[in-house]
């Protein structure tokens, strides 16, 4: 069989986004949104997900499912990437903190939507691969460092939005403290394994208002 061409991959990417549109519509009552925003949708159409998975899974990259990337980690299902990104209500001038770079797919989506992305990854090998791939694709508005994501990146905060791509049993206080107190948004999975819920928080002053969105299943946030 011939290898997939860029034209084939673009068609598969469009199909992936069409499936995401259907899932948003079916779950609109639960997630509170009928469709991803046009900006999020355009980013999903533009970012080559097949470049952010191990090469043996490239042909599966546009299926709406998570894929293993090593170290017992996965790249999230495209629908979940779309939903979590959309829930942040990002603006072009925003500064965003991402916890859990992985191989950089979610990072690349964010980089197309905001002015600056700061990403923390606990697995050194992932951080190196993601950084090289993002540079190769021209995303010069991203900085990645290796470390404990639960501590955030205080010296470059506060952030307009924080996206956590791993689950914690309770809200990491350091991340809440690094949210802009005037409307900073946080999206992350919370809860015990098997009972996790995706939550969206908005900070106003010292108060963080949380809303549960839907049941999810994520690997646990590693601390060091």
The helical percent reads: 25-40%
Question: How are the strands ordered across the major sheet?
Answer: 5-4-3-6-7-8-9
The CATH homology group name: Vaccinia Virus protein VP39
The coarse overall form would be globular
Alpha-carbon distance between the termini? 46 Å
Query: What is the CATH architecture descriptor?
Result: 3-Layer(aba) Sandwich
Oligomeric assembly:
single chain
Query: Rg from C-alpha positions?
Result: 16 Å
Unreliable stretches covering 5 or more consecutive residues: none
**Structural class based on helices, strands and sheet pairing:** alpha/beta
Helical segment tally? 7
CATH class: Alpha Beta
- As for the number of domains, it is 1
What is the secondary structure topology, with strand pairs?
Blueprint: H1 6-26, H2 28-31, H3 38-46, E1 67-70, E2 73-75, H4 78-87, E3 95-99, H5 105-111, E4 116-121, H6 124-136, E5 142-146, E6 161-164, H7 173-177, E7 182-190, E8 196-204, E9 207-216
Parallel strand pairs: 3-4, 3-6, 4-5, 6-7
Antiparallel strand pairs: 1-2, 7-8, 8-9
């Amino acid at each position: 069989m011939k290898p997939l061409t860029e034209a084939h991959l673009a068609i598969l990417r469009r199909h992936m986004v069409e499936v995401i549109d259907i899932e948003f519509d079916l779950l609109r009552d639960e997630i509170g949104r009928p469709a991803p925003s046009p900006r999020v949708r355009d980013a999903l159409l533009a970012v080559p997900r097949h470049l952010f998975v191990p090469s043996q899974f490239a042909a599966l990259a546009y299926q709406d499912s998570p894929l293993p990337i090593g170290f017992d980690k996965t790249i999230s299902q495209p629908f979940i990437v779309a939903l979590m990104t959309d829930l942040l209500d990002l603006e072009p001038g925003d500064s965003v903190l991402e916890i859990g770079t992985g191989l950089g797919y979610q990072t690349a989506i964010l980089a197309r939507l905001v002015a600056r992305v700061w990403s923390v990854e606990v697995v050194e090998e992932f951080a190196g691969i993601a950084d090289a791939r993002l540079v190769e694709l021209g995303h010069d508005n991203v900085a990645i460092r290796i470390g404990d994501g639960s501590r955030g990146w205080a010296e470059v905060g506060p952030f307009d939005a924080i996206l956590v791509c791993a689950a914690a049993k309770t809200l990491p206080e350091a991340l809440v403290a690094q949210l802009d107190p005037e409307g900073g948004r946080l999206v992350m999975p919370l809860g015990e394994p098997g009972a996790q819920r995706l939550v969206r928080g908005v900070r106003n002053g010292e108060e963080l208002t949380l809303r549960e969105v839907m049941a999810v299943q994520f690997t646990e946030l590693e601390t060091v």
